[in-house]
Amino acid sequence: MVAVSDVVVVGGGPVGLYLAGALAEAGIEVLVLERKQKIGQGVLCTGIIGQEAFDKFQLPQASIEGSIQQVELISPAGEIISYIHPHSFAYVVNRTVFDRLLAARAQALGVEIITGFEVVEIWKSNRFVQIKGKRRGFPDRVYQAKICVLATGNSFRFHHQLGLGLPQEFVFGGQVELPEREKQRPRLWFGKALAPGGFAWQIPQKKKLKVGLLSTTDTRPYLERILRKYYPQVKEQPFSADIAQKAIAQGIVTPSFRERVLAVGEAAGQVKTTTGGGIFYGLLGAEIAEGVIKKALLTSSFRGNFFGLYEKEWRRRLEREIRLGLIMRKFYSLLDDEDVSRLFDIARDNGVFPLVQQKGNFDWHSQLILSLIRHLARHPRRLPPIFHISREIWKKAKHIPYQKREGSPEATTKIN
Ligand SMILES: Cc1cc2nc3c(=O)[nH]c(=O)nc-3n(C[C@H](O)[C@H](O)[C@H](O)COP(=O)(O)OP(=O)(O)OC[C@H]3O[C@@H](n4cnc5c(N)ncnc54)[C@H](O)[C@@H]3O)c2cc1C
């Protein structure tokens, strides 16, 4: 007879592992199935996590390899604005170490993790979810669970068949690691020619430099250009082959639940649409899923409408950020390099940075976005022409449902 777990989590990334640990801590029997041979193997991520998130979720301190307080913003014309925050606002973690420490914590709490096991099929029988997969050197195996959680990151292969939604779109994130020759500062480059619809970055991390790019198109030719232009040490090498690239889901995935099944993390679109960062929103989603799963098991409520509580709550907390971020990124992708340079001029001259210090929050961007729009609207003559034809965007932003969230600066935002 096949043993039945309370919960099977498909995907041993940070969100699945965190959720598994939290459930096991409450005495729930959890099995994590991960297709990679080792947790954290070959992860592509810059590893920036806001300090607030770190504290809230008591994330593994031993994975921290740096922190960020200052960042240089570089316009398409090459102008540099140096932004210094009053205190450091984010950590840079080693993602492999981070994931492995989350796994170790989950295991210590009683979670079973099977690596090298790729789930290939999921279906529901009367009282259970059946999860079939394969592992090299072993016959195919089916696991049974009362509840199945999809924490599969940017893989949506089971969503359609299980009746879950799909993300609105994808962007691409590409990155390489270089040896850090001399002390460098975090840097962000902007401009269509450099990173269409996105931005590029340099993040120092323990004698390494992560150089990456977010874009609506293949990042590799753009990243290669940046490497050749700004990093003489790599001039001679053909780089595209070394650039790792991954699609990042953008937009709410709904429904993110069905009877006995729910999706968390990137698999539910719980990702910042401004930057592509997904760890914090994914952990928030996991925290909400944890509460609903515990109740479901306690009361034997496995119907779809019960798990609907999960989606209702996570959308209440994240939807506004995700939708507003997406609109803003789309608008940004319409700007040409001249427009972006003009915005840099306004930013330098007109008190934008005090506003960032006051309203900016590493994880919650909507209040800052709305404040910046209002601020820019006070300088209509200096704005690029595109702003004058984009009233529609502002109108759309106004219609995003607003939910008060205690403890977040956004709670004080009003949309007029
Ligand atoms: C270049 C780049 C830089 C980034 N930088 C940051 C950053 O600085 N900060 C930040 O917050 N986010 C960043 N992100 C995004 C971040 O990496 C993701 O949002 C985050 O990893 C999502 O976590 P997750 O647990 O939901 O999914 P994942 O970390 O993707 O984990 C999903 C896991 O599921 C497994 N899996 C999938 N399908 C199956 C299957 N069929 N069977 C078994 N296992 C399966 C996968 O192997 C994987 O291990 C970056 C992304 C990119 C591409």
Describe the structure.
This protein has 416 residues and is of the alpha/beta class. Helix content is 34%, strand content 25%. A hairpin with a 4-residue loop joins strand 9 and strand 10 (129-135). Helix 1 (14-25) packs parallel to helix 3, helix 6 packs antiparallel against helix 7 and helix 9 runs antiparallel to helix 10 (366-377). The radius of gyration is 22 Å and the shape is globular. Bound molecules: flavin-adenine dinucleotide. Flavin-adenine dinucleotide binds next to helix 1, strand 3, strand 9, strand 12 and strand 16. The site of flavin-adenine dinucleotide (FAD) has 39 residues, from helix 1, strand 3, strand 9, strand 12 and strand 16.
Shape-level CATH architecture of the largest domain: 3-Layer(bba) Sandwich
Which molecules other than protein and nucleic acid are bound? flavin-adenine dinucleotide
Structural class: alpha/beta
SSE pattern: EHEEHEEEEHEEEEHEEEEHEEEHHHHHH
CATH class of the largest domain equals Alpha Beta
Shape: globular
In the predicted model, the low-confidence regions spanning at least 5 consecutive residues are 401-416
Q: How many separate domains make up the residues?
A: 3
Gyration radius (Cα, Å) is 22 Å
Number of strands: 18
Distance between the termini: 61 Å
CATH 4th-level superfamily of the largest domain: FAD/NAD(P)-binding domain
